[in-house]
Amino acid sequence: MKRKLSTSDVRRETVIERAIQVFAKTGYPGTPIAAVAAEAKISPAYVFKLFPTKETLFVAALDHCFGRIHETLAASAAASADQTPDAVLQAMGGAYAALIANRDLLMLQVHALSVADEPQIGAAFRLGLQRVVRLVKSRSGASDEAVQRFIAYGQLCHLVTTILLDGDKADWARILTMGIRHPASS
Questions:
Q1: DSSP secondary structure string, 54-87?
Q2: pTM
Q3: What is the pLDDT of residue 183?
Q4: Cβ distance 60 to 51 under 8 Å?
Q5: Which end of the chain has the lower number of beta carbons within 10 A, N or C?
């Protein structure tokens, strides 16, 4: 049974969704709370009531991002017709590639890495990545090496997507994009 969300819970979710969009475009240092508030169509004071600092808002957005990643990977692992480690990793990889076609989720992660020396942000990123690694390991049953390769290819997919290498015909770009699968960015 789903619980009914209060107005502040609904607004909190709205602010987080809009924060993902705004932080993805302008990064942590370049984003004032007022920009998120404007995008969410509420006052900056109300955003500060929900999130006392810009850092807590950014961490909430990052947590939400990793939550979506976790849900997507778990669902794709469960839906894989073939439950061998390689097939589950393949299904998870395809689902993740489709998820980061939403550049907001991708760029939020990129921006989070750029400010990971901020204690709360770095801790949130490590926790999110820890959850992903543990999920991938437990749901796939793959070896540690295969899980490491899965995460490494995910990071390479980030690079390819972030700098728009898909379709680049240069030899060096072809080498990097070889075997990397992901849909076009949205």
A1: HHHHHHHHHHHHHHHHHHHHHHHHHH-SS-SHHH
A2: 0.89
A3: 58
A4: yes
A5: N
